[in-house]
Amino acid sequence: MGELKGIYALWYREIKVFTRERSRVISSIVNPLLWFFIIGGGLGASVSFGSINYQTFIYPGILIQTALFSSIFFGVYIVWDKKIDFMKEVLVAPMKRTSIFVGKILGGSTDTLIQIIILLTIGVVFIATGIMSGINFNFFTIFVTLVFLYVTTVGLVSIGLILGSQMESPEGFQLIISFVIFPMFFLSGALFPINNLPSWLAPFILANPVTYAVDGVRGVLIGSSRFSLVYDFLIICIFSITMISIGTYAFKKMKI
């Protein structure tokens, strides 16, 4: 029970921090919308995929982009926690470091899931106003999409926590994650289909776990995917379990 209370306390603290940072909440919503309207609208003027317009096509990718950027950036709070000695207070508490890591994962994943739910709600408005067409929104598809995104988010938050546990300054962390986030996003197929890829590009995209999250969500929402839903889900589950294992080890070895 003591470990569960500790996990709950860490989760609750992350939620309180997130909801009090209004600028973080607003930017997490505005940035994906800028991508949707500017990139989607600009390229959408000349690109379409059958009956699906380009903005509809990249909408699943925009959801993944939110999960990717928000989740990995969450690791910077570990760096700040170390700088203000909050992490030192947590580590001397009678809790296992594995429980601390789990509490942090749940907190970061919940923050990201809140942002995604807001974007899904905005998506309903886009469908109603005719901006997006061909999106299959119903209880089942939204539920499966949230499950896909949550499992993916757990793995991505773990990456952020692994990096944050090894870094000493927020500036260094932000520099490092830029080399992680952008390749993972641009090589995920979020902005283009992954069928008929050039032979030199295909290995990079197929080695990227985010690719399977995009493919799975796109398959659920607009019925366009390269792999089966089960295969995509299996890959992201393996990815998340692997990242949790590495992150747990990194937290056990973390020095303050």
Give a brief rundown of this model.
By secondary structure, this protein is mostly helical. 77% of the residues lie in helices and 2% in strands.
| Gyration radius from CA atoms, angstroms | 19 Å
User: How is the biggest beta sheet arranged?
Assistant: 2 strands, antiparallel
Q: Spans with pLDDT under 50 lasting ≥5 residues?
A: none
DSSP strand (E) fraction? under 5%
Structural class: mainly alpha
What is the general shape? globular
- The SSE order reads HHEEHHHHHHHHH
**SS summary, helix count:** 11
Name the helicity range.
Answer: over 70%
The neighbouring-strand order within the major sheet is: 1-2
Spatial separation of the terminal alpha carbons = 27 Å
Write the layout of secondary structure elements.
Blueprint: H1 2-20, H2 22-44, E1 48-49, E2 52-53, H3 54-73, H4 76-83, H5 86-91, H6 97-129, H7 139-166, H8 170-186, H9 202-206, H10 209-222, H11 229-253
Antiparallel strand pairs: 1-2
Question: Keywords, please?
Answer:
256 residues; mainly alpha; two-stranded antiparallel ribbon; 2 strands; 2% strand; globular
Describe the structure.
With about 260 residues, the chain is mainly α. It has eleven helices and two strands; from the N terminus they run ααββααααααααα. It has helices at about 1-20, 20-45, 55-75, 75-85, 85-90, 95-130, 140-165, 170-185, 200-205, 210-220, 230-255; strands at about 50, 50-55. A two-stranded antiparallel ribbon has the order 1-2. It is globular and about 60 Å long. About 40% of the residues are buried. The model has no long low-confidence stretch (mean pLDDT about 85).
